[in-house]
Amino acid sequence: MTRTTRRPAGPTAPDSAAPDGTGPDGTGPDSPGSTGAAPGTERRPRRSTLLRTVTVIAVLAPLGLAGWLGWRTVGSPDRSVPAVAAAGTGTPAPAPPGGADPTAAFTAAPTGTATPGTAPGGTADPAFPLPAPASTALAGRTVLLDPGHNTGNSAHTAEINRKVDIGNARKECDTTGTSTNSGYSEAEYSLDVVHRARALLAARGATVVLVHDGDRPWGPCIDERARIGNAARADAAVSVHGDGGPANGSGFHVIMPAKVAGGKADTAAIVDPSHRLGLLLRDSFHAATGEPYADYVASKGLDTRSDLGGLNLSTVPKVFIECGNMRNPADARRMTDPQWRQQAAQGIADALTSFLTTR
C-alpha cells in the first residue's frame, strides 16, 4: 500500500526558511552576498514580518470565506443542483443505442387463436409466434383453420371409432389419418401448416380460430369440428389435410360441399360461397407451391362430396384441401420440407384473403 504524508493545514509564511536554512530568495548565512551579521541580528525583523503576515491573514480569511459562500449560494454559474425530477414529469428515458427497440412491433400482439371447447392458450408452436398486424386487410374478419386428425387418435381407437351423425348418415368420429413411408404423420403436417397460415393471416389483421391446437388427447370428432366453426361465426373455414392415395398418384385437390339437406345438415346457404373459396384456394395453392393437380382423384384439382361431416354440418363457407399424396415419394419429399410447407401456408392464406376482400 502507498502511504501519503499529510502536510499541516493552514498557510505557510512566505519568508520561512528552507530546510537547509536558505530563504526563499536562495540566500543564507553562508551564501554569496550575505552580510555576515552576527546571529540574532536578523531574528527580530523576521519574527515581526511573520507576525504581521499572520495577523492580516487571520483578519481577511473569515471575510473571504463569507463572501465565497454568499457567491456560491446566489450567483455561482457552475453550481451543481441535483437532477431530481418530480414523479410523473414524463421526462423521457434515453433511447437505446441504435434507436427504437426493434422488438417493439412484436410485443403485445393479439393472439386471435382462441379455440372454443379447449383450454385457453392451447399449445401454439413457438416457432410461429403471432406478429402484430402489419395490415388491416382482414381486420374484423374471422377465419377458422381445421388441422386434420390428431397424433393421439391411434391411442384412442374406441373414442374415434364411435359413430356420429353427419346429417345424411352416421360416420366414425375421426380416423388416425395417413403418413409418409418414413412416418411423418398427416396430423403433424396439417398442424404445422395451420400454424404457419395462422401467423400470415394474423399479420393481415384476421382473428384466427383453430379447431384444435395439438392440445387435445384425441379428436375432436368431425361433428364437433363443424360446430366450432359455426360457433365462431367464421367468415370462411379451411380444413387442412394430406392424402393417403396410391403410391403412383401425386398432386393436390380441393374438396367442396355438395348440396345436402337431411337431419342436422343443410348446406344450401354455403354451397356457392364455398365453391368460390374452393376455386381461389386451388389457384392460389398451385401458384404458391407449384404442386400439380391430383392425377388420381378429382378433376382439375376440384372435387365435390356429400359424405364429409365437417362440410355437411358447417353453416359457414368451408372447404377441405388435400395438399398432396403422402404415399407418393415425390409429394412426401415436398411435404416434409419446411420451406415447401411455408409455401403451402402462403397459398392457403392468400386464398382466404382474396375470398374475404373480393366479391
Q: How many DSSP-defined strands?
A: 10
Low-confidence stretches: 1-51, 53-57, 62-124
Supply the helix-strand structural class.
alpha/beta
Q: What's the main sheet like?
A: 6 strands, mixed
**β-sheet strand percentage:** 5-15%
Radius of gyration: 44 Å
Counted by DSSP, the helix tally is: 8
Run of helices and strands:
HEHEEHEHEEEEHEHEHH
How helix-rich are the residues, as a percent range?
25-40%
In whole angstroms, the N-to-C terminal distance is 87 Å
Mean pLDDT across the residues is 76
Coarse morphology: globular
Architecture overview:
The structure is a single chain. The protein is α/β, with parallel strands linked by helices and 359 residues long. α3 (186-203) packs across α8 (338-357) and α5 packs antiparallel against α8. It has helices spanning 43-74, 157-161, 186-203, 222-232, 271-289, 309-312, 329-335, 338-357, and strands at residues 142-147, 163-165, 170-172, 207-210, 236-243, 253-257, 261-262, 265-266, 302-305, 318-325. It is globular, with a radius of gyration of 44 Å.
